[in-house]
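ok here's Molybdate transport system substrate-binding protein:
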Amino acid sequence: MIRDVSPSIMDLRRKLRKWAAVALCIGPLGQPAQAEVTVFAAASLKNVLEEIGEAFEQTYGEPVVLSVAGSSVLARQIAYGAPADVFMPANSAWMDDVLKRGRIQEDTRRDIVGNGLVLVRPAGTGPKDQIPDLAASFSADENGKIAMALVDAVPAGIYGKTALQHLGVWDGLAPRVVQTDNVRAALALVALGEVPLGIVYASDALREHRVEVVVEFPAAFHPPILYPAAVVADAKSDRAGDFVMFLQSETAQAMFDKAGFAPVEVNP
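and the structure:
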């Protein structure tokens, strides 16, 4: 007797299509594949990386999730196994530290962008008709506080301390320094008028309309300010490497430039 088995075959085909669809969302060992790129980035990168992340998602169809903080905090989190795909600190030293711990894919490391260091004050609180002298700016108010990121841990604070040492004023200023967890927090203190001066990145000062730049620190006063990026050793996203490369694209570099960051020589 011949039976019509076509209904069963059709049912089987439907099940196979469902299983195939499910398989596309399942990674190794039955774990769901990650559908986003998690980026641990220095606080000073927050706004520009939000914009770059949107452009990346439009190009690759995968969203970017940012976790921003001081570079030292993020480095320690990655060292202890935090679930990050890409690390982008505000100096090479913290990238080197994480690399030595075996937590970075060394061949993916790239220097992405640079920055400058500036002294800021609340907007409208000083004369605009002259270019102030750096040393004079600090001695004008001997009791005034100066906001800086942590001077022994956070890159912006380290750069700032080095610049002040170069000027020969650090020892006298150290008791007046108000240290914060990251450079954005230091910027906020100045913007709110809580302190009369702050040392922040040029890109931060450009974005915050409540502060004005007193003077720029010459690049020779501190080590080059570089933002490297690399894929974390146990990255879950297959697009992590694509994101690092996208940071060097004309699209991303134009966004960095508009945000006040400085270009660096493109890595091969």
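+1. Residues 104 and 233 are 5 Å apart (CA to CA).
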